[in-house]
Specification:
There is one protein chain. With 46 residues, the protein is mostly loops. It is 0% helix and 0% strand. It contains no helices and no strands. It is elongated, with a radius of gyration of 13 Å.
Length: 46
């Protein structure tokens, strides 16, 4: 299991490029915990 916390400024764009390398194919779970007033975007690619 891996957990990442990304602090963000609600008055600015906070680009972050986290990379997680997996040794083999596996299912992952992603969750976002953010205030409803915060706009966010998530990109996952293989």
């Amino acid at each position: 299991m891996s957990t990442t916390t990304i602090p963000c400024d609600t008055a600015a764009v906070t680009p972050v490029r986290n990379v997680f390398h997996l040794d083999s194919p596996e299912d992952i779970q992603v969750s976002i915990d953010a205030p409803t007033t915060l706009q966010w975007n998530l990109r996952i690619e293989q």
